[in-house]
Structures are given as C-alpha cells and as structure tokens.
Design a protein that fits this description.
By secondary structure, the chain is mainly beta. The chain contains two helices and 25 strands.
C-alpha cells in the first residue's frame, strides 16, 4: 500500500506510475515468516549501499563510482557532484548514510576509495543533496596512510544513537596494521558529524594513538548496525579462510586481528596461536567456513513479527541472509532466511515501511524487497 501511495505521488508529479518490479518468488517460508521476493530495480553495476529518501525514492551507490536516485517505478537518474573516486578491486564508491536531520539539512555521507601520494585509502565525505546534485561536497576524513593494494577498505558508516558517525576501515591487506595504535587501518573510527574528533573518544590524549580510533583489531568490517533501544553498535567482519565474526563493539577494546582468529591463511597456514587471548574481546558469533558477511541490520518493525529485535546478516560468498537470534548480548543461534536465491548480498536495510531491502553484488545487480505473503 505504501509503494502504491508513492506511485500515485509520482503520477501527480507527471512521472510514470508503472512499476518495473517483478515477483522473483511468490512464497518463501523461513525463520517463522512467509514472504515474497520482489525485484524493484535491475541492471545495477556492483551496487554497494542503499538509503531511503523521505519522498519514497532510493539512493543507491554503485562501486564503479556512481550515485543513483531510483524511483519506485524503477527509473533512475545519476547524482552529480561526487569527488574523485578510485575504482578498482574492492575499492570505489561504497557506503551511504543520511544525516539524522536529513529532512532539514539534506546531508548525505559516503565512503569511498581515494587516491593520493603513496596509493589509496578509505575516505569519508559529505554533500548536500539538491535535486540531482551534491552541493558543497566536503572530504571529512581520509585514512592518513595510503597503500597500493585494492582490497579491505571496510567502509560501513552509521550514525549512532549518540549522534556520532561511525566508520569501519579494513586492514588494507596488511594485517599487522589492524593493531597499530597510530594507524587508522583495521579500526572503527568515531567522528562528529562535521568530521572532527569527539572529546570523549576512548583514545583522546593517549600517546601514540590516533584520537579518532574507537576500537581496533578488525580485519575488514563490512557490516555495521545500531541496536534499537540500547544504541549498541554491532559489527560483522571478514575473516581470512574461516573466522568471519559478529562483534559487539565497545569503546577502546581490541578485537584481536591478527593476534587472534578462528580462521587460517588462504594457503592453509596458521595465522594465530589461539583464537582467544587475554585482553582480546571475543566475537559473539563466528563462521567457519567463511560466508563473507556484508550488510547488517537490526529488525524492529511489525511486518515480520518473528524477526523483531533480531539481527539480519547478509553474505557475499555464502549468498545467505541469516537471522541471528540474540539472548541479551549473546548470539543464541541463527536461521537462514535466504540461501542462494538471489546470489551475493551486499547490503541489507529495513525501510521505513518495515520491509527488508537487499542489494545484490554483481555486474548486473539488483534492488530487492522482502514483503509479507500469505
């Protein structure tokens, strides 16, 4: 009904009301709910992130360096005004987040691979969305140390319940950087919405630490979610060969990579002497073999009552959407909602309508929606 109302609004504006959506699966039964899978848009080139505009349209990033506005009828227009994005390997235009006061200020935040002397690094910028253009673009933060590799950018961004902006960074394929105090690689970064460093960050004033670091010891975190009610920050990250993790992030803690891991090197060689160590925060859940976790989101709505309060985790290599059931602050088990029906799942978001939206990671990827079905 909500999308029908939106479509009628587009008719009033003189735009097409014909949906280009297609029902991919009319009835799926999983994790205590019945739903159908609907494709809302196709032919997206390696889409990475999704955000919901107040007027019912979707903002979607494509890794090669394009930002799109997609209407409910599936039509799309490019957004101009992006800074220079270096596309290649795992790098490009990556995550998106709207400012909590977007309806007033129009600010869109995005992470991307930026090039400069010495190679590339993860960067964070923002601009004011004005029609089909980003006005007044600003680079808010750039990883100080660049490298020549094109993998492990991390790059998930979320606004926390505290109004601060959280950004994950990968180790850039140089694993020891994840635990180096003066290096931003392999960390969770915490910033004010203008890119400045909050005074209450855990390492502010501590010798040798970058003040923007919030937690360390992460390999390549590509899922980040804020838990409704508590405001807790939960994170999913790629292990090497095995050892993908779900972590509850707390300020100043060390999550171990590469000192601890449940995985091994791609060659089969051992990386860590033990998966645990004193002073290291253990994961709440880990996957061996790897599923390559990506989008992460808490479900807190009425469309799917059996999923309320639980964690949705998408995966790339695993091609799965998992429902992770929580008991307090512990993972109490998981059930599969999807298993290979759509392919590699890059992003998972819950819309204002309570429906679950997914982006698939492919050269001709798509935007999909899970809707209740009877």
């Amino acid at each position: 009904m909500k999308r029908l109302i939106i479509a009628l609004a587009f008719v009033a504006a003189g735009l097409s009301s014909v949906f280009s959506q297609a029902v991919v699966a009319p009835l799926v039964r999983a994790a205590g709910e019945n739903f159908r899978i609907v494709r809302l848009a196709d032919k997206l080139e390696f889409p990475w992130a999704l955000a919901f505009l107040p007027d019912g349209r979707f903002l979607v990033s494509e890794r090669p360096g394009r930002l799109l506005i997609i209407s409910p009828d599936g039509s799309r227009v490019p957004v101009t005004g992006l800074p220079a994005v270096r596309s290649g390997g795992q790098g490009g235009l990556l995550d998106l987040a709207l400012h909590p006061d977007f309806a007033r200020n129009g600010l869109v935040y995005f992470s991307y691979a930026a090039a400069g002397p010495g190679g590339q690094s993860t960067a964070l910028a923002r601009g004011r969305l004005d029609g089909q253009a980003l006005r007044e673009p600003q680079v808010l933060w750039t990883m100080p140390k660049r490298s020549g590799g094109t993998n492990h950018y991390g790059s998930r961004i979320r606004f926390g319940a505290d109004g601060k902006l959280y950004l994950t960074t990968g180790d850039r394929g140089e694993q020891d950087r994840a635990r180096e105090r003066g290096d931003a690689a392999g960390k969770v970064i915490r910033l004010n919405d203008d890119g400045s460093v909050p005074r209450d960050n855990p390492f502010v004033g501590r010798a040798g630490y970058l003040p923007e670091i919030y937690s360390l010891g992460h390999r390549n975190a590509q899922g980040l979610a804020v838990r409704p009610g508590s405001g807790q920050l939960w994170l999913s990250e790629h292990g090497p060969r095995g050892g993908d993790e779900i972590n509850l992030i707390k300020p100043g803690l060390d999550y171990g990579w590469p000192l601890t891991t449940y995985g091994v090197a791609y060659s089969g060689a051992r990386i860590a002497e033990s998966p645990t160590a004193p002073g290291i925060e253990p994961p709440k859940l880990y996957w061996t073999p790897s599923i390559a976790p990506s989008g992460l989101e808490f479900y807190q709505s009425d469309a799917f009552p059996a999923w309320r309060g639980q964690l949705l985790a998408g995966s790339l290599a695993g091609q799965k959407l998992a429902l992770i059931r929580l008991a307090g602050d512990e993972a109490a088990g998981q059930e599969l909602i999807l298993d290979g029906q759509l392919g590699r799942l890059r992003d998972v978001r819950v819309g204002p309508d309570g429906l679950v939206y997914l982006l698939t990671d492919a050269s001709s990827g798509g935007l999909f929606c899970l809707e209740p079905a009877r």
